[in-house]
Amino acid sequence: MSQSEYQLRISRRARRLRIDVSAQRGVVVVVPEGTPDDIVRRFVRAKEGWIRRARSRVAAEAARRARPDEAVPEQLDLRAVGEEYVVERVAGQQRRIRRDGTRVWVADDTDAAVRSALAEWLKGRARRHLVPRLDELAQHHGMRFARSAVRGQRSRWASCSGRGTISLNYKLLFLPPALVDHVMLHELAHTRHLDHSARFWQLLARMDPHWRTHHAALTRATRWVPAWVEMD
């Protein structure tokens, strides 16, 4: 694989070489500062098979998300919290969105407006369910964080700031509970080690003994997130 086929990103925080593949940025090789060029080239050559498979997976996912028949969902499957809803558009509704049992009623507006209303509603469900779960995991493992927030990040499931703020992506609602817990434990580990050093992975392994399996599954987790979520 020639260097023209990927981007290099030098990082002071990185503790190991890694490769990110996305539809927006293509192949990005993250390199710890000071890594010799020949080591980078050998690393990329060794990963060529993985890169090809990742490219194919990303291309298939991008094609799936481009389908116009998924512009507005007919149902919501929130695996993380075991909830399923039927979505219906209703004319003349005073509120943009409301829930009645297992049905979510949305004001019949443009497709973009409906998606926006559903996203905001889902953020509310995330604050109600995911934030308490983060608190529960922190208490169970004797971890602390400064505060929590719910956002709609494009490329991250969650993040932890240097000040200890953990931001959760509301799209976690679509993932299985075990993967959601893994993401939360990953960010809790960052409250002590903001890098991906050996100490970070050791701490994560103590909290999540199956972290390698969960980490691998997370690379394919976008298949659970419906296409309409990323359309705007």
Short key terms for the protein model shown above:
232 residues; alpha/beta; Zincin-like; 3-stranded mixed sheet; 6 helices
Structure in words:
It is a single chain. With 232 residues, this protein is of the alpha/beta class. It has two domains: 3-65, no CATH class; 68-230, Zincin-like, CATH 3.30.2010. It is built from six helices and ten strands. The mean pLDDT is 89.
Task: Quickly count the helices.
Answer: 6
* Mean pLDDT across every amino acid position: 89
Strand order of the largest sheet: 4-5-7-6
Oligomer kind: single chain
The total of beta strands comes to 10
Let me know the largest β-sheet: 4 strands, mixed
Overall structural class, as computed from helix and strand content, comes to alpha/beta
Terminal residue distance: 34 Å
- How would you spell out the order of helices and strands? EEEHHEEEEHEEEHHH
Under the CATH scheme, which class of the largest domain? Alpha Beta
Q: What is the second-level CATH architecture of the largest domain?
A: 2-Layer Sandwich
Poorly predicted tracts of residues: none
**Rough shape?**
globular
Instruction: Give the C-alpha Rg.
Output: 20 Å
Write out the CATH superfamily name of the largest domain: Metalloproteases ("zincins"), catalytic domain
Helical content class: 25-40%
Strand content: 15-25%
Number of self-contained structural domains: 2
CATH topology of the largest domain: Zincin-like
